[in-house]
Amino acid sequence: MIIYEGKDYQDVSRKAANIMSAQIIMKPNAVLGLATGSTPVGMYKQLIEWYKKGDLDFSQITSVNLDEYKGLSGDNDQSYRYFMNMNLFDHVNIDKTRTYVPNGLEEDSDKACADYNEVIRNVGGIDMQLLGIGGNGHIGFNEPGEAFEKETHCVDLTESTIKANARFFESMDEVPKQAYTMGIKNIMAAKKILLVATGSAKADALYKSLYGPITPNVPASILQLHQDVTVVADEDALSLI
Ligand code: GLP
């Protein structure tokens, strides 16, 4: 595992974008596992800037996103599909038919999840998976206490995750209570993992994930067993390490 410390959010975003860019340049038809949340926004901005300068080409890239709220359509401005369009896909030359996000509108959870596992298999697996981390150590929407061996599944979001995400919605009641998420098994099957974290609210989760016992109670702790993990974090997020 390699840990890079960035000076601040911008520096972390640029360093993470450099690592993602290297993947894109070395393998122009790479499958990128992408993530939402506020943390990767700066990284996406940097990638867009480099694309506009002519330094990056997304035309052969495929992407698979980690998760989506159950019940939200891609047009809903709080859906993760909408987030990806706004923060990356609409600004680069990626072929949108090769950008995958779980189908939040599929009511049959088993079907939504089986379909998404099929997508991941059909694209040939993930070359580089980007991850943020929740304050409780969740990755994607794999909440504490879930089995490590799951593939894509439907989760009941924890109270703390619902609260943390409420800032994006008009009221707590509007925050979806369930989501479809890639499982830890999908994430661990990625060839490379890039974890990005900033701010003191992530310090405890980051410490436990990188140095604590490997336990489903801290979902990101499983990353200690992956052979190619790069962490980019700021001083605050690394403050307990
Ligand atoms: C959500 C997402 C995660 C993300 C987490 C942290 O729960 N499903 O993928 O890592 O939020 O978000 P943020 O980066 O805004 O702190």
From TrEMBL:
Under SUPFAM superfamilies, the record lists: NagB/RpiA/CoA transferase-like
Q: Does the keyword Hydrolase apply?
A: yes
Q: Which residues form the Glucosamine/galactosamine-6-phosphate isomerase domain?
A: 11-229
Q: What class of enzyme is it?
A: hydrolase
Q: Which Gene3D superfamilies match?
A: 3.40.50.1360
EC number(s) from the headed UniProt entry: 3.5.99.6
UniProt GO MF annotations? glucosamine-6-phosphate deaminase activity
Per UniProt, the keywords (alphabetical) are: Carbohydrate metabolism, Hydrolase
CDD domains in the cross-refs: GlcN6P_deaminase
Q: List, from the UniProt record, the residues annotated as the active site of this protein.
A: 67, 136, 138, 143
Which pathway or pathways does this protein act in? Amino-sugar metabolism; N-acetylneuraminate degradation; D-fructose 6-phosphate from N-acetylneuraminate: step 5/5
Listed under catalytic activity are: alpha-D-glucosamine 6-phosphate + H2O = beta-D-fructose 6-phosphate + NH4(+)
HAMAP family the UniProt entry points to: GlcN6P_deamin
Q: NCBIfam families per the record? A: nagB (TIGR00502)
Family, as annotated: Belongs to the glucosamine/galactosamine-6-phosphate isomerase family. NagB subfamily.
- What job does this protein perform? Catalyzes the reversible isomerization-deamination of glucosamine 6-phosphate (GlcN6P) to form fructose 6-phosphate (Fru6P) and ammonium ion.
Q: What is this protein called?
A: Glucosamine-6-phosphate deaminase
Organism listed in the record: Blautia difficilis
